[in-house]
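request received
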Amino acid sequence: MIAIGMEGSANKLGIGIMLHPKDGSPPQVLANIRHTYVSPPGEGFLPKDTARHHRQWVVKLVKQALQEAKVSVDDVDCICFTKGPGMGAPLQSVVVAARMLSLLWGKELVGVNHCVGHIEMGRLITGATNPVVLYVSGGNTQVIAYSSQRYRIFGETLDMAVGNCLDRFARTLHISNDPAPGYNIEQLAKQGKQLVDLPYVVKGMDCSFSGILAAIDGLAKQWGLGGEEKAQEDEQKTIESTIATDESLESTPTRADLCFSLQETVFSMLVEITERAMAHVGSKQVLIVGGVGSNERLQEMMGIMARDRGGSVYATDERFCIDNGIMIAQAGILAYGTGFRTPLKESTCTQRFRTDEVFVKWRD
Amino acid sequence: MAPSLETISLPHLPLPVHVVLYRNVQNAASLKGRLLTGQSEFEYAFIDASMVLSRAHATAAVFRAVNDYMHDRLKSHNVHSEIVFSLNPTNNITESFRRFGISDSTKDLLVIKVSVSPEITYESVAAHLDSSVEGTPVPFDDQTLSEISDVNKIKKAYKLAALPSPTAKENDEAKQRLENSLLSAIALRGS
Amino acid sequence: MEEYKPPALPSPFNNTTPPPTLLIQGAEAHLYKTTSLNPSIPAALKIRPSKPYRHPILDRRLTRQRITSEARCLAKLVREGVSVPALLALDWEGHGGEEGGWGGAWLMMEWIDGPVIRVVLEQWEAWMKQNAGSLDQSQVENEEARVRGLLRKMGAAIGVLHKAGVVHGDLTTSNLMLRPFANASGTVDGTRSPSMEGDVVLIDFGLASQSNQDEDRAVDLYVLERAIGSTHPRSEPMFEEMIMGYRDSYKGAPSALKRLEDVRLRGRKRSMLG
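response:
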């Protein structure tokens, strides 16, 4: 079976082609390409601009993916698309393309839950069999565990997603959105030394980030660290000045210190709620998925926690944990294999679509 | 020799603790004076026993002080002054001595000495106290303490005036509740 | 995969003989049984081990905050005469785990004898199932009255807790214990329906906070309602009985119960139990 996966729930447009060989040998990624809409520093991506980006690129990407995969349209069994959750306009632009291809080629549609896509791709790549899943991205923050045909949400953010918190702070600091604001925060945080006090909000297995963002935005303002000029200073910094910060501990925090402190605080919260879920369900595996999951410091912290519990952490690299098309193909082909289809008139998309709404027929 | 000197091994703590309770002490003023000169042989916790509710009350303060001593975070000069300080629910050291320490008029005296060095033995402590304290050693138990403690003063020092006062009966709930309240105040000081 | 080993005990418990026995190892804390400051009286020792994954400054700050918050709740409840384990000793800094490093904060509590209510209810449910055929109407009514009595007692205990200005944060039938009266005799052997005599004692204040808000109280009750519903199917219809015990226990109860209606309707979020 061969499936095309089409993803565009946020600012990444991804097309992937997945092969599940008939003989039962391991699935193969035939193509996995992505094009990202990057907004200027200090700005987020707006739905209408993002949707326009996806419309402009979708045909080109599908063609390129088919070429890379060396398959013809005839070989394709189904077209999988992200049904939600995500931003309305970008989702719509991709679902329209999916419908068009379905009609043009006479292929069946499979609507996929974006979060389930992340989980299934993570399981496939890492080989984690039944992990507690931490799903962290710009739009979602959830701790998930599988039980009786559902991916159940044990904990989640009570307000904004952790990735959104990081992205918005990147805007405050005018950090570049290329390749991703979170990636650039991570690099800057590596030079941070001093931990500033930030709120830490965990309630059971839930957490909250809005108070932290407000606090750190306030600190950036208080110390005059926000804005374009400071961002340029960052770029001009030499190695010399990085060493100088070593000695200036307990002094005025730097931009790097703020990024460092933000990461240390929010990642500690994420590891804490994940550990609580692991203790609750008695699992020793943890799988991190979603864009924020590519952060190496988060992976490191999660690894230490898992090791201390006698378990291990599974994470994927940016090809698979940042939004992509192949994960939609993977989750879609699993559902397709159990007979699941999305009829044309039901091939809508939705901004809200909870992970636990999906009936996971393909697992025991 | 003081027949009632007792050596207690508090669970969890490696240092033995020597304790004796005196009644009808005649030379409190002189004992206090010698304590204040800071001579090392007079390094004791001299506690006004009327401010001690029970054995558990006193041992909680000893535990707190010795644990802080072992972890190098004494707030006062030495582990013995720290025991007196540990009875206090607040961080005011002067106040703790005024409330719980020996005064010129102290009649009932609880003496505690921790074996912080090998020279401090049962024999050395017993001999020194025998020659220094003019008073009658009595058993250090709840029965005796119940005749000595000034419950109202204790309650006032811990701001627990609203709690019911203990009665004479056995398994007294009011006494248990008061004692538990004292223990938690000692544990939480400075938190 | 290697077997999980709990971290080394913080000083002074690394020298305790016999060593404390590990009872429960949660995500946040480990519970041990050991002796109190009186060698003949047992105590519960709760340790919050250091979390090496987080920044040491943040780790100390959080550990200290949480252990002292729990200790303050216990101290307050003891003063107010609520049935909780007494706080015996505390160290929010903690010392001496591996290589003399930081081992974690700890608090020592009074040891509570007796079963947790989850076990009492499970034994009762099993006993009822086993003897369903041989009980006559009045015996069944008698048994159900006993459970209702227990549930009312639980409700009253929670009411007293709320009245004292504390919400528990994690009420389940595993965090309520039944301490037999001092003069009680005999043990539960499974041949008789379990005893329901005794005091209801609330334990584990790791997620507790001080609050007098109806909302917090209602959420406390709602969490327990769902916990009872998922672990004790037979006694679920009797939750109302618990509410009755609660309603009569303090003046603010009716207004907290009114709020409970809202919380139920709202459903904090989609049920995630199970």
